[in-house]
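Worked example 2:
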Amino acid sequence: QAHSGQVGFVYEHALQGFSMTMSPQAAAALARNPRVAYIETNDTVTIAQSTTGQSTPTGITRILTDTTAVDIDSNDDYRVDVDVAVIDTGVDFEHPDLNVAGGVTCSQPNKGPRRLRTASCSPGGDDDHYHGTHVAGTIGALDNNFGVVGVAPGARIWAVKVLDSNGSGSEAMVVAGIDWVTGMAGTIEVANMSLGGSGDSRAEYDAIQGAVNAGVAFAVAAGNNGADADGYSPARFDNVLTVSALADFDGQAGGSADPAGTSGTYCRVDQDDTLADFSNWGPRVDLAAPGVCIESTYPIERGSYGTISGTSMASPHAAGALALLASNTLPARDAAAVDALYATVIGAGNDVWADESGDGTKEPLLDVRDVDIFAPTLIPTVSTDAAPTVTISSPFDGQQFESAVSISFAASATDPEQGNLSGSIVWSSSSFDTRTASSFSMVLPAGSHTITATVTDSADNTDSDSVTITVQPLSTGGLVLTVNEYKVRGIQWAELTWTGATGSIDLYRDDEPVNGFNGAGVSGSFDDTTGLKGGGTATYKLCDTVKCDEVTATW
């Protein structure tokens, strides 16, 4: 603050430091402080994606996941006992094909007083893009007889949202996400970063190294620039597993002589069984994995499943392989253990593909077929269909209302498999007939009322929530309302006069607030029009802080 800057994120797990908004001159002055190791600019970071009963994606079959001890059979929903962080745009928490354990959103508010704009990684992480959800599906989509399946089915996914709805973010946000993962190193074993930016970031490197020292292994995308990965971070780092993208259209070795994707339903044109034409390359790349036309999970509101291409899609295949290894008890949670995971994945790779990049280095293709190496710890699920949950948000339990006041009822319901079930909520009470809706309003008579909201999913699992409210009887004495009906050019008007009011007052016509009424005081009058011509009736109700009184106007 002595340099007139605004502090953003404060890092305490992966590295010791902070992000800050300040002028170049102030930054230069701060850099001269002997207690400051280094200062770097907060550059932009973006996703590494190139521009769709259960099916097994071609990437899963190509790396031979379906032949391993994972036992992919679309049936018993065994889940790999491992935790994986997806540092990305977030993950759809409600997707029925994912096992999302939790997450955070790393951001800095841009509203309010500058001194109060504290950057943080707070509970959240829902995906408002689609990229992170797609990555999560390749890592760990469930083996559950619908949708797709991942490399490490059922892995517990932790959403670490560092990119916005456009797939863009800052180095400060990425470092904050890595710092959060490091603080969770007792739980999280693997992290995926399908993102990057040009150049080098010492802060990002140091943050990853702090996480690696704590026992977290990282798979990262090589980048989609068709260039040497050494020019991009985190792809150029030596403490991660950097993954290039293979073009594979059939999940089988042995490429076609002609470019695939020129017919049928392929999402793009490329040469089968070769390095994808967009993929970065070079000696910094450790591994190749399928990254063209990869089908995986999408946010429910965007269709639940989609097919896209990029090294972003290759990296989570490797993250899944790391997860298979890490699910077994590791000898230690430290950098040596992580290096051993990297070496095992690289060493198990094969060379059955064509590297036409011309960089002189052919990275091995990810291969997890060896059941002696890739034998994960699996957890059977007790039930393949979890119960829904329903919560009444209005009114709250114990709330009291004045007599003749319209009461708003609202609730929400979700189901792990079916998603949003709010429209199927059934409301019941001895005070009114059963109805199905997410919300409604009505007037209840004086007395105590218990209202129950119930939801049932397709497997007949149910959940209920109840509230008890009290409607007070009309008070006697005090407030008195009278009406004098008249017409102007045939239009209905009512002169309303009241006496004995206490406190603030509100006027209703047929249980709807009267526009323009701002009356106050013990007594007064107000003229209201229905806007209608001819005969008719209207019920007026005036309520103060003690009681309501009503009259009927007849024209």
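Helices lie at 24-31, 58-62, 131-140, 171-183, 202-213, 311-326, 335-347. The chain has three domains: 6-379, 389-471, 480-554.
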